[in-house]
Amino acid sequence: MSKTIDWGPIRTLARRVFVEGARLALTPEEKALLKRTAAEVGISDTEAKSALATEEAALGILREESRRIREGSHRLMDALHRMYQHKDKGDFVSARQEMRDVLKVEVVPHYRALAEGQLEAMANEP
What we know:
Order of helices and strands: HHHHHH
Radius of gyration: 17 Å
Pfam families: DUF2379
Mean pLDDT: 95
Protein name: DUF2379 domain-containing protein
Largest sheet: none
InterPro entries: DUSAM_dom (IPR011753)
Helix content: over 70%
Number of strands: 0
Domain DUSAM: 6-122
Number of domains: 1
């Protein structure tokens, strides 16, 4: 995937709001960050725009963006770990299945692309 993803700013915002108790200000910068991140985690532009209309809805989209990033990362890392274990044993059928299982549920385009890349890399394996 050629596009660089930087989720540091959205993680920082989520930590400030949900851990430290800061108020979501909905400044133009925060709105732009929430809208950009929505697209990066598979949330439609329409849903993102409507979520930015109120502070309550914006909190919901921030929570959902954070959840998708966190859960998708854990899901992919766990599956990669199992995939490499299978590959080390020469079990490429099970290794490929790990990535297919990720693709069945993953909605974040970045994580999907990584799983698809792993599948493509194993295409010529037994």
